[in-house]
Design goal:
This protein is an alpha/beta fold. It is built from 13 helices and 12 strands. The N and C termini lie far apart (about 50 Å).
Amino acid sequence: MSFLSAALDRVKPSATIAVTDKARQLKAAGRNVIGLGAGEPDFDTPANIKLAAIHAIEAGKTKYTAVDGIPELKDAIIAKFKRENGLTYKPSQITVGTGGKQVLYNALMATINPGDEVIIPAPYWVSYPEMVALAGGESVPVICTAAHGFKLQAADLEKAITPKTKWIILNSPSNPTGAAYSQAEMKALTDVLVKHPHVWVMTDDMYEHLVYDDFTFVTPAQVEPKLFDRTLTVNGVSKAYCMTGWRIGYAGGPEKLIKAMATIQSQSTSNPSSIAQWAAVEALNGPQEFIPANNKVFKERRDLVVSMLNQAKGIDCPRPEGAFYVYPSCAGTIGKTAPSGKKLETDEDFVTELLETEGVAVVQGSAFGLGPAFRISYATKTSDLEDACKRIQRFCGNLR
């Protein structure tokens, strides 16, 4: 009998973390590696947010807090939802966790029973199906093709819903594709969901502020108020506020669900870091001007990467609306032979050979549920992106 839990048989390690770790190992061994696997802004946390954390330390705000967030942070989150999304919550409808991932995990652990189904549009963030599996549920991936902008279609959503469906997870802008739903596209989905009152909506809005070309962000409960009482609207400060390591995520939702999530958190981690919570208060309440300034740089990087990748033989790179990822197809390279003599049969072969040959670390599309493709994070300095794209062009040009 194995000492380890059988639950581990249902879960795969994170591919995005794995490629980042491999890139670090190669760098430590002296290789010139450009890592484009991590979804992490290269900008520093703004000074006013760091100062708020320092002041919290100096003021002795270093004790345990309420399990799911200090009142001041809940108030800041309530104000944010009202100001930016037109959503009205009470403190009892707000939860704060150690990153958005914990908030999502708490919700699934608090609601999933064996046999429950969770609809997940693919390509998807690698953690969604694994968290569903850990909670004992069944993921129902629905393929969203490049032809439809990697966005779930209303007819496909309707087909995927069964009496066992408990949740749908929506992520806009998307990790890994950067695809974002317009008002009309979101309304088409919410119209379907209104007809199925047993289906709850979990919306991961972590990249809300990272949109380009005058795109307007919307979230499901904002588009369709009838869904408010069965929607968990998840967000956080990691991406737009350049606070990935601070580990603060939050959500608004029905009071009964929020209370159940707090019960899960009370027996796992208890409260998020008190210091990080005070920093998040300042992030949400303080100056926001740095966000469009950062977005201007992200947009320039997006346009650079899309242009250069589309000049690589066998690569087709769509232009996303948001986040800081591109999701190019490498179908045109499959069946060709790399300089090492290895025949490329999968997108995993592509990314492995690219790393070994040119020292560029990207993540295979199959890890996100749709290949042959790969994900690039362009949240890194522009000179590295340009160098990496030149290496990808050279690698593709040398395939035979």
